[in-house]
Design brief:
Layout: E1 6-11, H1 15-26, H2 28-35, E2 39-45, E3 60-62, H3 65-71, E4 76-79, H4 86-97, E5 101-104, H5 107-124, E6 128-129, H6 140-147, E7 153-159, H7 162-174, H8 178-188, H9 196-199, H10 202-216, E8 226-227, H11 235-244, E9 246-257, E10 260-271, E11 283-290, E12 294-301, H12 305-320, E13 339-340, E14 347-356, H13 362-372, E15 377-382, E16 391-397, E17 400-401, H14 402-413, E18 423-427
The structure holds NADP nicotinamide-adenine-dinucleotide phosphate (NAP).
Length: 430
Amino acid sequence: MTKEAFKIAVAGLGTVGGGTVKAIERHAEVMASRCGRPVIVSAVSALSKDGLDFDVSGYAWYGDAVEMARDCDADVVVELIGGSEGIAKKVVETALEAGRHVVTANKALIAHHGLALAKVAEEKGVSLNYEAGVAGGIPIIKAIREGFAGNDVNKVQGILNGTCNYILTTMREEGRDFDEVLKDAQDFGYAEADPSFDIDGVDAAHKLAILASVAFGVEVNFDAVHIEGIRHISSTDIQFAEELGYRIKLLGVALRHDDVIEQRVHPTMVPLSASISTVEGVFNAVVVDGDEVDTVMLEGRGAGERPTASAVVADIADIARGISLPTFSVPVTDLAKVSTRPMSEHCGAYYVRLALMDKPGVFADVAAALRDHNVSMESMLQRGREPGEPVPVVITTHETLEADMTAALEAIGALDTVTEPPRMIRIESA
Ligand SMILES: NC(=O)c1ccc[n+]([C@@H]2O[C@H](COP(=O)([O-])OP(=O)(O)OC[C@H]3O[C@@H](n4cnc5c(N)ncnc54)[C@H](OP(=O)(O)O)[C@@H]3O)[C@@H](O)[C@H]2O)c1
């Protein structure tokens, strides 16, 4: 092979950056054959060489990643530092301005600044690829941008955060409470020391906003995502869910209704008959509904050194092969500006858990509050209780407007026989 090498500069040599350098080295031969020329790392940048478990002596070393993005000899700058602002953003902007392709795993950056960055990429005629940022090793961006190109996609939903899925799975399997399982997840390295981005749903929302943009051809709009995390899910909810034929998942759901988009991340009761309910532990899954293909689910590892590096390397391979696609599947000027459907207009079924004092007429008061707000009950479960303790009661509803459900819960919460604020979890049909 005599063709000139395709050169990569990697900024950030942590979990994913280190994994990417090692994967390119490990697969040098097959990459050269697949891309029609050698694909090599030519430059790297990190804060320090200390603690690296691979040799960087063969690469140009830059202490300043922005300088590398501007001055190096690489065709592609791979940003694996992280964060939506600061150095990562500067590295990506500088590389694009310098006419270099960019590959990143940084979903926060793409969710917040993807539109502006995509404009620069288009003006400069270079690619901005971010497969690893959405569901790690699952090639979902490729699937939507290329595999579903002949479909109208009106729904995308998924388990987009492995930390949350691990916590919910472990709570169910071991009958343990949230705080305890979170602590274990941190000790095992599945959760960050500050886990809020994961457990409060922000990380999943970054990924959902990107998926909605690519799937529906609309401007990426993170601020339009309704976000709820899993902190308030109790082991009691998880047991009730099983009894009712559901499993609780932190789901990201994006729906297109003509010119209105609904984007939401929240704990969801998923029927045990739905494939996504069987996706457990740290695994992620994304389900796409296309009008031609029907429903397709992709499942795999959403994080970790090797699965994430696999997606980064695939993005690099595309560029080396000369495959260049619009960042969000259509050119920036063709991305639709759409409005957001407020959650009050969401229509769905609900699970509600109440703690009631054991007094005559309590159920009648709850039923009246539901009736007065147009909420139709589907089923009710009641648990035994210790003497003097409130009675745990669970209600599921038929399809209801969220504004009505919220008003009914306010009325129920105000009853003096209700001893805790009502807990509500949305039910998704599939
Ligand atoms: N980890 C995953 O499984 C995963 C999965 C999907 C997407 N991602 C995304 O991938 C990106 C990287 O994540 P990661 O887990 O690999 O993070 P990480 O292990 O913390 O690595 C980040 C690296 O960037 C380096 N760095 C910090 N500031 C720098 C600077 N000014 N110049 C050059 N290097 C700098 C850090 O150096 P020090 O170590 O010296 O601070 C560290 O080596 C993030 O956007 C993340 O959201 C990660």
